[in-house]
Amino acid sequence: MKFLAIAAGMMALSSCVNVENQTAEEPVDTASVVIENIMTRVSVRQFTEEPVAKADLETILKAGLQAPSAMNAQDWQVRIVTNQEMLNTLSGYMLNTEMGKGMAARLNGKNAFANAPAVAFIAAETGEKATAYNREDTALLSENILLAAHALGLGATYQAAPARMISDSAEAKDYLKSTFGFPENAELINIIIIGHPAESPAIKDRDQSKGRIIE
To answer: Which residues, 6+ apart, have CB-to-CB distance to 143 below 8 Å?
Structure first.
């Protein structure tokens, strides 16, 4: 469901008038579209080889950067990478770590990113200009990316373990900064793998007792 495309055209749709009958078209129920997108998103870890359109990646990136942040600090850095040679090189460093060696057996020959056609690397800016909530800010940005990908009919998964593998490898950290242009004050927090789904995972139930409304 291309929610973002629907949302972009909603103003035009809601103001559209039937010339013959002079009656306004029924407006799109934006609340239902947004809620459905949230409730139907699942983690996808298997992808086809089809590349993700650059226009879709640009939309996903913009949606991520639209996330709220403490004091509007925007203390994050994001890189979405589609260059498979670069991803495979970085994966080689990652899978040579202790954690990576254990993961390699479960990847069945795939790289550390499950051979996803696009990978978002999300880092928090550190230092005196960053807030104490930089990690929380990256979490909000990540959720926007996940929801935008789902809205565009793509699959995605939030992953923290690959970020830890990179932090355990001096070569991987150097490659991340020199090749992907991360500044020195950027601390990688997580990655999100993105692509066209090759699986249809079931929506998992949520324990509703863990949330309450108190009046």
So the answer is: 67
The answer to whether 185 touches 125, Cβ cutoff 8 Å, is yes
194 bridge partner residues: 118, 156
Task: Return per-residue pLDDT of the chain as tens, 215 residues.
Answer: 444 444 444 333 333 333 444 455 778 889 999 999 999 999 999 999 999 999 999 999 999 999 999 999 999 999 999 999 999 999 999 999 988 988 887 888 899 999 999 999 999 999 887 899 999 999 999 999 999 999 999 999 999 999 999 999 999 999 999 999 999 999 999 999 999 999 999 999 999 999 999 99
CB atoms near residue 210 (< 10 Å): 6
Beta strands in 47-185 (DSSP E): 76-81, 118-125, 155-159
Q: What is the pTM of this model?
A: 0.86
